[in-house]
Amino acid sequence: MSNREWYLEHDGPKPSLYGWIFRHMAMGAVYAALVVFGLIAILLIIYSVGELLPADSKEAPEPMPQVFYEAPAASKTHLI
């Protein structure tokens, strides 16, 4: 009888722990790849729909005028 435990053996009818770990890590990599490529596909679909829209739909005026982006100099206060 060998010193190795049964779950580390590669021979025989009993399952190997190495094979179990490899299968689970490979399935995790497959799931991660599906999520990443799924997100890329969704973004490409949204981009392609946006490219199909007419140019007039992309030239809307800004929802807020430029005045609201900068604070007036008189309203700046020092807390110290």
Per-chain topology:
Elements: H1 17-52
At a glance:
The protein contains one helix and no strands. It is an all-alpha fold and 80 residues long.
Structure overview:
The protein is mostly helical and 80 residues long. It has one domain (6-75). It has one helix and no strands. It has one helix at residues 17-52. The longest helix is centred in the middle third of the chain and has 36 residues, at 17-52. The chain is elongated, with a radius of gyration of 30 Å. The mean pLDDT is 77.
Task: For this entry, give a set of tags.
80 residues, mainly alpha, 45% helix
The proportion of residues in beta strands is under 5%
Spatial separation of the terminal alpha carbons: 79 Å
Rg: 30 Å
- Major beta sheet summary: none
What is the N-to-C succession of helices and strands?
A: H
SS elements, strand count: 0
State the domain count: 1
Please estimate the helix content. 40-55%
Return the average pLDDT rounded to an integer.
Answer: 77
Given helix and strand content, the structural type is: mainly alpha
The total count of helices amounts to 1
| Uncertain runs | none
Q: Looking at the structure, what is the overall shape?
A: elongated
